[in-house]
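Data availability (excerpt). The following record was deposited with the supplementary files.
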Amino acid sequence: SCSAVTELETLATAWGIERAVAYSASIGRPSSLRSVMAAGAPRLLVVGAGLTGSLLIRQLRILSVPGLQIEIWDKSQAPSGRASTHQRHGVHADLGMQYISTIQPEHAVYKEFMDAGVIAPMTARVTGHNPKYMDPTFSHFVAVDGTASLCQHLLRDAVVRPRTMTAIEPVQEAVEHSDGWRVTASDGSVHTFNAVVITVPVPQALQISGVADLVAARGSDLDKRLSAVQYSSRWALAITLPFGAWESVHGLGWGARYVSSKESESICYVAIDQLKRGRTKSESDPTLVVHGGVPWSLQKNAGVARDREPVGLREEVENALTMELKRLIPEVAEYDAKATVLHKWRFSQVYKGLQDGTGSEIVCDKPMLILAGDGCTSSSGIESCIRAAESAATCLRGLAHL
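Predicted structure:
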């Protein structure tokens, strides 16, 4: 009845949609997903709290979508995605993204970061061959407190908190109506949203139950284009040495070093985390970050899911990288590690981006379902994430009718 719907709308506004629907069902009154979702403010789910997801929140704040309620879900312990900073067990280290390289240092995103003290010009000496770093048209910045602080700043500034340790499972169109999504979280709870934006790497997005079918139903060649997106895979290792190693570490004369395949078959990059970030004072134990080369990492199952890894693989990889580091940099060979952290990036950098990608792809118009991220562009990097966030925000504002 009209009165029942009106009462349900009132409850939805006061209590939230899920609680209102549950209450209505408990007293035997039918609920309408359309009326409930119309009663409250539009609800948006952003899956993934990495750079694209965090930048999307910033962009939506700038666009000032009225009354929009946003939830961010991320399976990791803290927002950052591939801009990850490990800060446990005596280790503080950027394990993924190392620094920002840009030909647009005047962009508003970087200005915001600079004004907030989140980033600073990179002053550390970088050795070895890296075309982008050697290109004088690029400017380089470091995240002063670690790359994870980029996402933390963006999310904190928007007063949005991620649901940590959460993964979205089935994403499917509501049966009763076409104005919302019913989404199941990893804890089994079910939620409804007016729009969903998935910002995780494309292969992971396609593994979410229901997404691949929706992509196929979109028609054209979107499913083939998305299936062709590829990422590199690599191992990363952080090694914290005793404080007494600082004299030897400072003596190296660099903050980051690119390593050629002729120099090492397994290591392609080494950074002294504190010096790379401009922390010249030795206030903590020195931490070295080692990135495995992609060919070697693939030989060591970096592209394989964790539950399919051979027994003893991680110990083997850590030992191999540690021994190679000591060979490559004999100045630190005498020091035993105080702490180590090994991380596998199955989806490290975009190797083959989406053909004709603009940063986001609309999978469904109504209700709105969008895939966004650097995988939907031609390359990895924060500027690809900025482009993806701006593209997704434009889609939400112009097409979702939020």
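Summary of structural features: The radius of gyration is 23 Å.
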